[in-house]
Amino acid sequence: MESSALNSTVSDTTSQLDTSQEVVEAVQQLGEDTQNFFTDAWNYFQSALPIIVKVLLVAIIGLLLAKVFLRLCRKWLQRSKMDKSAHHFFYSVLRGVVYVVLVLVILQTMGVEMSSIVALFSVCGVALSLAVQDSLSNVCGGVLLLVSKPLELGDYVLINGVEGEVVKISLLNIKLHTVDNKAIYIPNGVVTQNTIINYSKETTRQLDLDIPIGYEDDFHKAEDLIRQIVLSNPKTIPDPPPLIRIMNYGDSAILIKLRVWVSKDDLWELRYDVLEQVKDAFDREGISIPYQQVDVRLVHPASDKVPPEKPEL
Fold first, then answer.
1. Environment class of 86 (CB within 10 Å of its CB; exposed 0-12, middle 13-18, buried 19+)
2. Closest C-alpha among 192, 87, 215, 204 to residue 142
């Protein structure tokens, strides 16, 4: 029995020695693998160090040259006769092209074949064009706006039912400021596909007013008063002379048409002046400005008495 216990003890000791030996071997193997990994990484780094240094130098020098080139281009755009609204647009496009070229040069320095780069850009270009086709239409619309110039910075325009002053023309949209200081952004694609009414394109505008007077009033006297008011205003352009004639016979008034030329900057001021002064002059001279009236005529119905029935024969 003592011999059996001794054999069991020897067996347990042998098992523990085997386990310890396996642990030692596993630790040694892990150490060897780690050493080999760092050795291989260091050897790869040493072999790739010239390429890494070359890529860093190309990237740093390329960025410096790109910044200098873009700064010169911005100064050239500011000195050129190109419309100011096109400066930001062309500068953005030029900056994008410069950085794309820089990325291509860096990839080529890293040893990437140009055929692979071209294939990659072709696939990305097709996928990108399908994903952002609406944005591309806005970009094309922005190019058309800058080339054809239907509107410029500072113009007051009406586009698709929205009106305001043009304060910015960007790559994707234009920005309008309304008279009550609201900012409205309209995509360039919408702008090019709709009618653009530019109130600031021409230096002069025509003020068009319909002034009503009563049928019982002297229209010759009313026309003379309107003519005196218009010609005495310094904002009026006297040549060509203003048109003041009867335009139409309305339901409750005679409509006198006034057409007079004025500078685009004085249009609204002249309109306000004429309306106020015409009202004062008409009140002073006893000329009425009728409002909409409806004459109602009451017709009495026939007698409600029922005629007597005829006697039967």
1. buried
2. 192
